[in-house]
């Protein structure tokens, strides 16, 4: 979880910047949002409520309330300031708090609402589901948690791919092996969900055996969920450490914070014995808040795992 937050904070100062108009390999201040060094953004501020909600066994309404507390009351932020919230996420939170939609109907179903705003917050769910052997059960939860903000089948399928990758990595598979096997497993699991199955080809490139040798100029790092997932997978395939994966990601330009955050998370699950750079981690702002949410979540999930292995 900390690696993902480091990726977010490293990417914040250069979010939306053009590729190769800068080079960074450390935590810097100012930039796009004019924030101090170590400021993390909406990616983390939507992830923290999910962790807290999973720790407390909260339901979807309680999670939407936490999202509202972030967006309208600046909770879950480094310094009482919510910044960088994407349109689709903002609309979903308004649907819940102002328009009083049911939680699972807050997400936008439009094909134009296929940003990476659900993907960026869902890693805790992979940890929660690491010992769940039934893919149907995992997909249903991955579906529902995505629908809180994004309901187009393309965004939902992105969550399936990302969280199933994390699931397999956390269970000791290598990323290359996962990418080789996942299309067939998903095709089978989605046979009764034709609208979702029809979106799988959107992601075909990342499952090709030579995807890692795609030229950098052909990798797009925008906030479009397909671009994001491909860019993230490409970064992790192209590096052998968490820190180098983050540096590769933040220098792609465009949606740097989300791409670097997801890359850091994926790389951490691929290199399970490794930790993200300590110096960067110590530079993160509002450490007390991060610790107060991550520690109970980690303890609860660890206990849960221990019970399951008894
Ligand atoms: Mg952000």
UniProtKB/TrEMBL annotation:
Requisite cofactors: Mg(2+)
Tell me, what is one Gene Ontology molecular-function annotation carried by this entry? metal ion binding
**What positions does the entry give for Mg(2+) binding?**
41-43, 255, 257-258
Free-text remark on how the cofactor is bound: Binds 2 magnesium ions per subunit.
Keywords annotated in UniProt: Hydrolase, Magnesium, Metal-binding
Q: Which InterPro entries match?
A: ADP-ribosylglycohydrolase, Ribosyl_crysJ1, Ribosyl_crysJ1_sf
Which branch of life, at top level? Answer: Bacteria
Q: Which family does it belong to?
A: Belongs to the ADP-ribosylglycohydrolase family.
What is the name listed in the Swiss-Prot or TrEMBL entry for this protein? ADP-ribosylglycohydrolase
């Amino acid at each position: 979880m900390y690696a993902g937050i480091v990726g977010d904070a490293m990417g914040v100062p250069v979010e939306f910047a053009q590729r190769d108009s800068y080079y960074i390999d450390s935590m810097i201040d100012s930039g796009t949002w004019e924030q101090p060094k170590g400021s993390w953004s909406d990616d983390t501020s939507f992830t923290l409520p999910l962790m807290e909600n999973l720790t407390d066994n909260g339901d979807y309404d309680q999670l939407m309330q936490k999202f509202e507390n972030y967006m309208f009351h600046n909770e879950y932020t480094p310094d009482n300031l919510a910044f960088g919230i994407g349109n689709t996420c903002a609309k979903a939170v308004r649907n819940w708090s102002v328009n009083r939609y049911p939680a699972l109907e807050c997400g936008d179903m439009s094909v134009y609402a296929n940003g990476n705003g659900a993907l960026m917050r869902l890693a805790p769910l992979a940890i929660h589901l690491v010992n769940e052997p039934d893919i149907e059960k995992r997909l249903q939860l991955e579906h529902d948690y995505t629908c809180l903000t994004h309901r187009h089948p393309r965004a939902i399928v992105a969550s399936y791919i990302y969280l199933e990758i994390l699931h397999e990595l956390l269970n000791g598979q290598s990323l290359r092996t996962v990418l080789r096997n996942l299309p067939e497993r998903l095709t089978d699991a989605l046979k009764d969900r034709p609208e979702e199955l029809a979106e799988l080809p959107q992601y075909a490139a990342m499952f090709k055996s030579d995807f890692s040798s795609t030229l950098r100029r052909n990798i797009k790092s925008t906030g479009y969920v397909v671009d994001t997932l491909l860019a993230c997978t490409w970064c992790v395939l192209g590096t052998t450490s968490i820190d180098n994966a983050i540096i590769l990601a933040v220098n792609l330009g465009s949606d740097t914070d989300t791409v670097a955050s997801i890359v850091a998370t994926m790389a951490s699950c691929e290199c399970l014995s490794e930790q993200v750079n300590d110096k960067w981690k110590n530079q993160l702002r509002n450490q007390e808040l991060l610790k107060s949410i991550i520690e109970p979540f980690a303890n609860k999930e660890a206990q849960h795992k221990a019970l399951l292995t008894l």
